[in-house]
TrEMBL record:
Residues 16-132 form the MaoC-like domain. Pfam families: MaoC_dehydratas. Belongs to the enoyl-CoA hydratase/isomerase family. This is MaoC family dehydratase.
Length: 156
């Protein structure tokens, strides 16, 4: 009987210009936001103080943008990099065009914009991802470009 273990894609399997849609989405709870915010020592009242946040332009607490970014990338792992990534090389062009609130659902998609074999690390390649996070209404709430080092397909 043949067995397949869930994994991400090998370097050769990534295609530039393809939109990889990651499902399911993740509904963000108040507990998620407060736990992440306190674990990371972020005392920003916009995340923790409901009375303060009521008086802002948003009228309620915001989901911590670093939690949004982490979840956006996390939603891509099973489909793209589970067990095939060597390392994250860096993030750039991170933006949060609209806020995410408690009870919103974050959906993620990724486009591969560039890939090349590593010149200094045989058996590995560099893949550039552009991640986009949308809420349940389709509004873009986060974008980020990420460079990764990924294994080439092992030779048998």
């Amino acid at each position: 009987m043949r067995r397949e273990v869930q994994r991400g894609l090998w370097f050769e399997e990534f295609e530039t210009g393809v939109v990889y849609e990651h499902r399911p989405g993740r509904t963000i709870t108040e507990a998620d936001n407060v736990l992440f915010t306190t674990l990371t020592m972020n005392t920003q009242a916009l995340h923790l103080d409901a009375a303060f946040a009521e008086g802002t332009a948003f009228g309620q607490r915001l989901v911590n943008s670093m939690f949004t970014l982490s979840t956006l990338v996390g939603l891509s792992v099973a489909q793209l990099t589970q067990g095939t990534i060597v390392a994250n090389l860096g993030f750039s062009e991170i933006a949060f065009p609209k806020p995410l609130f408690h009870g919103d659902t974050l959906y993620a998609e990724t486009v591969v914009t560039e890939k090349r074999e590593s010149k200094s690390r045989p058996g590995e390649g560099i893949v550039t991802f552009v991640h986009t996070g949308r809420n349940q209404h389709g509004d873009v709430v986060a974008t980020a470009t990420r460079k990764t080092l990924v294994h080439l397909r092992p030779t048998p």
